[in-house]
Amino acid sequence: MGISLMEGNEAIGRGAAAAGCNFFAGYPITPATTIYNTMLKLLPPKGGICMQGEDEIASIGFCLGAAMAGMKCMTATSGPGISLYSEQISFAIGSEIPIVIIDVQRLGPSTGSATRGADGDIQFLRWGNSGGLPVIVLAPVNVKDCYVLTVQAFNLAEKYRCPVFVAANKEISMTRETVDLEALDLPPVAERKVADADASFLPFAVKEGQLVPDFLAIGTTILVRQTSSTHGPDGYITTDPEQIEKVQERLDAKIKTNISKFTFHDEYVVPGADTLVIAYGVTARAAKVAVKKLHQSDQSASLLVLKTLWPVPEALIREKAAPYKRVVIAEMNLGQYVRELQQVLTGKEIVFLGQMNGEMIKPGQIMEVIQNG
Amino acid sequence: MDSLLNSNRPPVFCPGCSHDRVLHALDQALIEMGFAGKDVAIVTDIGCSGLLDTFFNTHALHGLHGRALTYATGIKMARPELKVIVTMGDGGLGIGGAHVLSTCRRNIDLTLLVLNNFNYGMTGGQCSSTTPHDAVVASGFLNKLEKPVDICQVAGAAGAPMVSRVSTYQKDFVAKLKEAITYDGFSLLDIWGICPGRYTRRNKLTPKNIKANLAQLPELTDFTSKNARMEYGKAYRREAARQKVPSDPVPIAVTCAAPQSGRREVIILGGAGQRIITAGELVCLAGASAGCHATQKNDYPITVMRGHSVSEIILSDEEIEYTGIENPAVVIALAPEGVKRRMKMLEHLSPEALVIKAAGIELSPCQAAVTEIDFRARKIKSPDWALAALAVLAQQKKILTMDMLKAALNLRFKKAIYETALAVIEKVFV
To answer: Is the confidence at residue B295, as pLDDT, over 90?
Structure first.
């Protein structure tokens, strides 16, 4: 056994290091600051880079530059910082720059409550970019997930050349928990696919059937162009509708068509139950208590914990919800992910439990909804 | 050496645009300095100056308005050997002002070329941060209300060690570019030019005017001697190499047995400076050393040394799902600030709960058993009350045993502090 006592943010930092992160830039913000503190301890002695930007825009900008120069980059913030990241997130999506972005959610709107948890950014992370192309969002439930999903986030960012969000929450990130680091089930570390270094290299060229362009770093012997402008395979601005459409559809498809490869989830199945509770993040823990307590009752319920929120794992949700009459979703906002369930599970009875008061949803609240609708 | 210009993409600036002169002068400077395309990265943002990178055969990154310095900083930190040249207009200068100031303060080895033509060319000739207040631009009267910035003075004041201004029509333009590019540190060249498409349609500006206007400006201080210092990347690498590699988290060995089983909730209600969070951590470590799962959730305000400090701890034989406190087995009440935060909870304590409270703390009537400790009478200082309260728990074999507490102290502290902590515990047993 290798039991340690660790908060979620430290686990995110250690997970990043385990995934090969060698560049971090951030701007201090509660409740994400301890990720920066962790990276400042871990990276410099090992030859990595940890920087504090003058603001969030600079911090993520440093990361995008370093990522294009070949480094594995991460930044971390909370809702107000995600707002400032927005233009750079759009850049990373459209120009296929791998980066891991941690959002330790706190109660909004706006500066809101720095020390209160929430899951209020769930739609914002998906849609807070210009162009509306898809992103990947993973949601940890506990400290162990903070570690493992950060490793997964790096792998996905490298593999699909895109921003990958970890939607944490103050209630996980700043809560200490015992965790067995040696027992973690970690995936092998993935690296971005490197292109052949020959003069015919085009930064955004793909072969037939290929969805992610091979990568060469800025600063090596073959010239590399990167641009935030609408571009074709050569990385130059273009207005050719055919070329534009091809790239946009590829950006859409590379994320959406691969969802089955990263549909992270957990479940607690109670045979004979007619209700399925769907939850994510810290609320999944209260939901687990609720379904366990009701296990032997005549109003039992099963639980599906979603750890990949975007793209919406539609196939999984449909399959898991099929046997149940009713679905209950609980989330720390006033109704965000429930919208996705309503679209995926048309015709199914969906009961929503939301709360946005800075406190975690209690197991009793979820039990009440399961029992009384 | 060959030109670094892209023969497939001839420049397409408006006729008479100064940016064209910058392009060729920069190419000339790079040729004379012996750079090949692969040695150079040109980083641009949007606006007319942002076209520059497409006309070169170098590494290139074109990004969002005003943010070029942020990408360039990342590239330079990742690839110190690369010559990184940033261009921005007077628009990017304004919108990215915070980045300009911070890059000056940082002194990272980038060359910033400000293609200053006194207006936003691409969007229709609106005023920028350098538009003279008597100019006629597409912003109506608004530019009359603002003072143009002299970026060289600002950059020098912000710590840039190499600051210079130049006209695109000046004979030594290429030499000035070479000087800026050569400098090992952050260099900023304020390049004055003409925007015939927008600005000079309604404002008189000729090479001669520019020369005269530049000559009228107060001479720049010798910022090089004032601000010269080790380049940021070099300084970073020097400092980073001196940092100690942090130790991995120390695994907690299971050496004790817990006095109770099941889910045990503890809440410590105190004030800032009472080491409440540390005490909470000690309970977790004690629990872990008895093979328990543990969680700790803290609540404190933004002030340091003032206000409440609350720690909520759960120990359990099973994995802990919900981390909120619903039915505490133990409440440690040490300061009114903390007690006030959990009034409602205190009113509903179960009869099995134990409250350890410091003498003088007021509690509303509750069903729980209350033990009052006069820490002052035992000569225990306020920062040690939380630890002393844990010793009381250990004494009663509630949540903790003395072995568990000692194991926790051993995990948390080095020898000297460990000894001091033991001395505090002794005072409880007197």
So the answer is: yes
d(CA A142, CA A125): 20
For residue A152, how many other CB atoms are within 10 A of its CB? 25
Kindly list the residues from chain A whose CB atom is less than 8 angstroms away from the CB atom of residue B289: none
CATH code at position B179: 3.40.50.970
Q: B302 and B189, same structural domain? A: no
Cβ of residue A359 closer than 8 Å to a chain B Cβ: yes
- Could you give the domains of chain A? 1-262 (3.40.50.970), 266-372 (3.40.50.920)
From chain A, pick out residues whose CB is under 8 angstroms from the CB of B69. 58, 61
Instruction: Note whether B101 contacts A54, CB cutoff 8 Å.
Output: yes
Q: Which residue of A lies nearest to B61 if distances are taken between CA atoms? A: A226
**Residue range B337-353, pLDDT digits in tens:** 999 999 999 999 999 99
Judge if B325 and B237 occupy the same domain.
no
B43 to chain A, closest Cα gap in Å: 9
Q: Does the beta-carbon distance from B54 to A236 stay under 8 Å?
A: yes
What tokens appear for A247 in the block?
């790239």
Three-class SS of chain A: CCEEEEEHHHHHHHHHHHCCCCEEEECCCCCCHHHHHHHHHHCHHHCCEEEECCCHHHHHHHHHHHHHCCCCEEEEECHHHHHHHHHHHHHHHHCCCCEEEEEEEEECCCCCEEEEECCCCHHHHHHCCCCCCCCEEECCCCHHHHHHHHHHHHHHHHHHCCEEEEEEEHHHHCCEEEEEHHHCCCCCCCCCCECCCCCCCCCCCCCCCCCCCCECCCCCCCCCEEECCCECCCCCECCCHHHHHHHHHHHHHHHHCCHHHHCCEEEECCCCCCEEEEECCCHHHHHHHHHHHCCCCCCCEEEEEECEEECCCHHHHHHHHCCCCEEEEEECCCCCHHHHHHHHCCCCEEEEEECCCCCCCCHHHHHHHHHHC
Is the same domain home to B174 and B300? no
For the beta carbon of residue B291, count every other beta carbon within 10 angstroms: 17
* Separation in Å, CA of B262 to nearest CA in chain A: 14
Does residue B1 surpass a pLDDT of 80? no
Q: Are residues B305 and B350 in the same domain?
A: yes
Please indicate, yes or no, if residue B4 is contained in any of the structural domains.
no
| Domain interval for residue B148 | 18-241
- Check whether residue B205 and residue B105 sit in a common domain: yes
Model pLDDT, residue B180: 98
The answer to whether the CB atoms of B61 and A67 lie below 8 A apart is no
**ipTM beyond 0.90?**
yes
- Percent residues over pLDDT 90 in chain B: 96
B378 touches chain A (CB under 8 A): no
**What pLDDT, in 10s, does the model give residues B67-123?**
999 999 999 999 999 999 999 999 999 999 999 999 999 999 999 999 999 999 999
pLDDT at A1 over 90: no
Residue contacts between A and B (CB atoms, under 8 Å): 221
What residue in B sits closest to A238 (Cα-Cα)?
Answer: B54
CB pair distance less than 8 Å for B281 and A363: no
B17: helix, strand or coil: coil
Number of domains in chain B: 2
